[in-house]
Amino acid sequence: MAETPRIVLDYLAALVLETRSPAYIRVDGLGGILGWGGDTPAYRLPSLAEGEPVGLVLSAVDGLIPHTGEPIRLPAVELNSGQFVDVHVFGGDDHTWVLLTDATLETMQQAMLQQRLNEVNLIRGWHARAADDQITRSEAGELISELPAFTEEGERLEVSVLQLYFALPQHSGPVLATDDLDPLGRVLRAATEVITHESGYVTSMAQDSLVAMFGVLPTGSSPQIHAIRAARDAVAAVREAGSIGGENGSVAAGISSGFVSVGLVNVAGSRVFVAVGPSLEAAGNLARSADSGTVLVDVATLKVAGDAGAGFKSSGEAYALDLN
Amino acid sequence: MLQKKICMLGAFAVGKTSLVSRYVTSMFSEKYLSTVGVKIDKKTLVVGDETVMLMLWDIYGEDSMQKVQMSYLKGASGYLLVADATRRETLDKAASLHERAREVTGDVPFLLVVNKSDLVAQCEIDDAALQPLLNQGWSVLRGSAKTGLGVEEAFSSLTQRMVGG
Ligand SMILES: Nc1nc2c(ncn2[C@@H]2O[C@H](COP(=O)(O)OP(=O)(O)OP(=O)(O)O)[C@@H](O)[C@H]2O)c(=O)[nH]1
Ligand SMILES: [Mg+2]
């Protein structure tokens, strides 16, 4: 890489001075303060005094001095005031420098992203477990009583809701002894797998249906596209997983897109995702009215589906894709 | 007064912040507010005839996107590994963080807290899962930031080992 021209370096230095409020404290080999400068008032540190141990002023560097070797960087240390600061320790021997640069803004942005991601990952984990345990949502009654708490803090999201309805064939003979799951468990797991693969996530499961939402987890393309792809794959997967002794059951899918309010509520020590909105009901209605082997989607889904919408034919107010 | 630095290490949402807050302020909140960066809390306790000021470094939990920066562990006298009893994978995360922490801290005392043990029905970490760690000489404690079970004990037993008591 070519050497960075002086003018660029000067510009960068000015930028850091302007946006990062750098402040420094110079300490001796025992951590006693020798001097300070820069924008120390920005950090509202307890009063600085020569000879004081720096650890009393800034607990983050307690135990790090005397410093030798590579510089140390401690990103996003929260100060008492709720401000975040990157702490840098470098130099050595008799003169160690403690440099503070403000990181509040990027840390707050990071916080929002991380909160969302962690919640989503927790939910994913619960769903994986729910699929494993073949849990049906018996807590539904409890959820509704908690709804007001979530609507206050919840958020509105544009999503596509996919609902699957399925019926398993009647047992016509002995189920293979090698099957470790019952057919319902296999079906729920197979559907959950393809839905998760399309960045959707399953919000409820029952004996004969499954609901998933796209657009809650970060997705590569639009939620509608993922939902349609997932519906195609899920119909195939449910058929395969649900077939018993060569006999297939029935499976149909409905997709509706629009705004829903989502939030997390506490149920018996676990946090459960809740969503409300007209699309949920609409997806259910579509799935119920779809013939077996058919995906029925509303116009809000199809109009932004791009290539994923190929093969759908107008059917009343909705659009149908026949996978038979 | 002795000062000792303890780091809280574990996967996200295992209850690191909740354990610190139960220990320092006796409070617990059901609400999940994920930690970014690190927050340092202090608490004094008496071990034998020694008064120790603990600096508790509550570090963000490791997730799929972000590894924990090991620079936070510089100067630590010990650490608490935290796992969530209802999420088996958090035990593996604790073990891998332990490996990485070792490279920075060397052979300092540590202790594993299997948190959320109040959620008995959802428990995924049974005694058999902990046996291999116990065989390797780990100190392990079941606890709950919610009920307070094991919390004092976790911090004080770790501190005792740090000050050589
Ligand atoms: N039932 C129960 N819930 C707990 C317990 N400890 C923590 N929680 C809950 O678990 C969630 C996460 O707790 P935190 O203390 O924020 O977890 P953390 O490890 O600090 O999370 P990060 O900062 O994101 O890494 C919160 O909703 C807490 O209320 C516990 O002992 N029992
Ligand atoms: Mg935390």
In the CATH hierarchy, what is the class of the largest domain in chain A?
Alpha Beta
CATH names the topology of chain B as: Rossmann fold
Biggest β-sheet: strands ordered side by side in the sheet of chain B? 2-3-1-4-5-6
Low-confidence stretches of chain B: none
**What integer is the average pLDDT of chain A?**
82
Provide the low-confidence segments of chain A as ranges: 133-152, 172-180
- The termini of chain B sit apart by 16 Å
* Mean pLDDT across all amino acids of chain B: 95
Can you give the helix content of chain A as a percent range? 25-40%
Reading the helices and strands of chain A in chain order gives HEEHEEEHHEHEEHEEHEHEE
Strand proportion of chain B: 25-35%
Question: For the record, what CATH class of chain B applies?
Answer: Alpha Beta
Quick overview of this protein structure:
The complex is a heterodimer of chains A (324) and B (165). With 324 residues, chain A is α+β, with helices and mostly antiparallel strands.
List the helices and strands and how they pair.
The complex is a heterodimer of chains A (324) and B (165).
Chain A: H1 6-20, E1 23-27, E2 33-38, H2 54-57, E3 72-78, E4 84-92, E5 95-102, H3 104-133, H4 140-153, E6 155-167, H5 183-197, E7 200-205, E8 209-214, H6 223-242, E9 250-267, E10 270-276, H7 278-289, E11 294-297, H8 299-302, E12 313-315, E13 318-322
Parallel strand pairs in A: 9-11
Antiparallel strand pairs in A: 1-2, 1-5, 3-4, 4-5, 6-8, 6-9, 7-8, 9-10, 11-13, 12-13
Chain B: E1 2-10, H1 16-25, E2 38-47, E3 50-59, E4 78-84, H2 89-105, E5 110-115, H3 127-135, E6 140-142, H4 151-162
Parallel strand pairs in B: 1-3, 1-4, 4-5, 5-6
Antiparallel strand pairs in B: 2-3
Bound molecules: guanosine-5'-triphosphate (GTP) and magnesium ion.
